[in-house]
Amino acid sequence: MKLSEMQIPDGLPVDGYGPGFFRVGGTLHEGAVLVSGGAVLPWAGVGDAAPLMALAGRIDVLLVGTGDTLMPLPDRLQPRLEATGLGVEIMSSPSAARSYNVLLAEGRRVAVALVPVTALTR
Question: What is the pLDDT of residues 21-78, one digit of tens each?
């Protein structure tokens, strides 16, 4: 699915997504992605806490897309992230991608961690 085009002042927007992939800043990435500070960073998915914890102090809001549906983060990860001062929002990956683009366009210090969807629904 292609997301609506918008003007992004700085950073990499999530341009689209589909089963197993995301397109970020025009480049296709298979699997989970972490987008922050104008870069796509290595991330192995919701069990990979270290890259998310490393964002503390660099961003204000972390959006986490958990795939097709909303799921809690494992191992009390959300409260641990919030304890570092990060605002954490958990949602489906399509919702997180759209919200990230809006916040990015507003000039907010935001990052998004996305687990791929398994299928596109209509």
Answer: 999 999 999 999 999 999 999 899 999 999 999 999 999 999 999 999 999 999 999 9
The model's pTM is: 0.90
Instruction: Give the domain CATH number at 100.
Output: 3.40.1230.10
Q: Is 73 inside any structural domain? A: yes
With beta carbons less than 8 A apart as the criterion, state whether 83 and 66 touch: no
Number of domains in the chain: 1
Tell whether 2 is covered by a domain. no
Q: Give domain status of residue 98, yes or no.
A: yes
